[in-house]
Design a protein that fits this description.
The complex is a heterodimer of chains A (305) and B (300).
Chain A lengths: L3 E10 L2 E11 L3 E5 L6 H9 L6 E6 L2 E2 L4 H5 L2 E4 L11 H11 L4 H14 L15 H13 L5 E5 L7 H17 L3 E6 L2 H7 L2 E6 L2 E7 H6 L4 E7 L3 H9 L3 E4 L5 E5 L6 H10 L3 E7 L4 H11 L1
Parallel strand pairs in A: 3-8, 3-9, 6-7, 7-8
Antiparallel strand pairs in A: 1-2, 1-4, 4-5, 9-10, 11-13, 11-14, 12-13
Helix pairs in contact in A: 3-4, 3-5
Chain B lengths: L11 H5 L12 H16 L2 H27 L4 H8 L7 H32 L2 H6 L5 H19 L1 H14 L4 H5 L1 H28 L3 H26 L9 H13 L10 H22 L8
The chains are: A alpha/beta (305), B mainly alpha (300).
Chain lengths: 305, 300
Amino acid sequence: MPLIELDGVSHHYGVLRALHEVTFSVEPGAIGLIGQNGAGKSTLLKILLGLLQPSQGSGTVLGFDIRRQSRPLRSRIGFMPEAESLIPGVRGVDLVALAGELSGMPRRQALRRAHEVLSHLELDEARYRNCEDYSVGMKQRLKLAAALVHDPDLLLLDEPTAGLDPAGRDAMLRLLRAIATRHGKSLLLSTHLLGDIDRVCQQVIIVDRGSVLGVGRIEDLCQQRAGRFRLRWSGDAGGFLARLREDGATVALATSGDQAQVDVPDHWTTRQLFERSIDTNLVLQEVIPEEEDLQQVYRRLVLKN
Amino acid sequence: MVDNHPQRAVTTLDQAGYRPWTGTLRSPWWSVLAIVRVALGLIMRRWLFWGLLGLGLLNFLYHFSFIYLKATLVVQSRDFARFLDGFKLTGTGEAYMTFMHVQAGIAALLLAFAGSMLIGADTRHGGMIFYLSRSMDRKHYIIGKLLSIAAIVSLITTVPALILYIEYGVLSNSFDYFVENWTIARGILGFGLVLATVQSLLLFAVASWIPRTVPLAMTWLGIFVLLTALGRALREMAGDRRWMLLALWEDMLRIGHWAFGSLPENRIPTGTETAVVLVGVCLVSLALIVYRVKAVEVVR
């Protein structure tokens, strides 16, 4: 069963189009949701949480219909918002226990579970302090504890590393990775930091201006860029390179003179390159398809959009 | 809820720290109780509020001990009993009405400063999403917050008035006091209900739009003080007593008199007119609350 499956989901705020015909399906695991500010990430999160009814389209999260089963859906989801979303004057352990109670846990069990989760997130020494007295990193972990307390199957994390120093960010990412890998939780990590997604997630959803530009395993997306090759040859390649340019390829010659990076038209494979090398009497020593990293994939898709 | 996650496996590391929870989730209506409990806890942890609660408690103890003294000393000295009657603590509806009026003032003052913490923080610090991202609906959140405010008002006004009423009856020679004065119990509950309902809806509506403490306190007190002054001024200018309907505080008192059965029938504005105004205020407040708690406002 897919973790999230959306079919033609659109949402408008008045005349403003926030999401347009979003269709995708992702499997359980750690998933990154990346996009610039205003790309539609928050609207998508609201819809996945069942807090917002899409203007059109349908979908399921954990098998629950996002339109008709929003409350049972939220009982299986833990949400860590970007906003502070704490209650000033309430102690850490009471806040996490309250989160458990609001999720439907009986009071005693919620309190016991709050102690367990806070210990697991290394907040046990600060649990009796008022939450407004916590440092930024501790507040982030407290919000994570509140999201985890009822043992959800899916965690929606909105900018979990926002405001953290490098050490705190590193610790948070290690924690999220451990939650995803050791405890079998699925994560949807919404961020604008590609590095966070690279470190934690196996799948990614790229959104821009209300549309989903790419979905899938990060490895697959990076390999999908079949149109770029690195070539190395021996001899005079003038005729070969001129022929490539005539046929629509873009050639970037390396300073050494015997290598180039070539962007070929969509339907080309290595076959077209070898055919032209034979025609121009050139011996190609290397033809290596170039893989992109996530940043390049993101940039390419957004620029294309 | 049965735990059937396919990928979940308890490892040694899990046993040392994180453990899956397998239990049955309860109805979301239980979360309403949790919201009320936390709200009351927040009030009890502030010294400022303890000061105001102490003031209310002092007023209550004054009445409580006076009723006790009167009941025990009246047997010994008739003159002393007549002296005590001068304090109007006679066990009549008017006495309870006066007591609740003073207590309601203390409750309103407390709410002026507590509104920001109880309601305003949810819109200012994004606390609303803390509630709404759980397995509860907006109606549970709204009802929980309204009941929190109503509980604070009732604890200061209705509950002590009922205790005084019971004390007076118990210290009487027979239980005839309860039979003969059942309208007092109706009055206490009715007036208490009006105070709790109007103040909770009005405070929620105002605090969700004006979340900061000082502007909220000024607006809250302004609603009662300035509208009363405006109502009086317009009444004098236009010569129409119905302008006093603008004075929400006096409207609540009028309904209180209505509930106690002490509102003159030919008095303008009438009880019905006053009730219509208060119901209107409540409906407008509710509309503002629902609009504010819409999901669009939630995730920022």
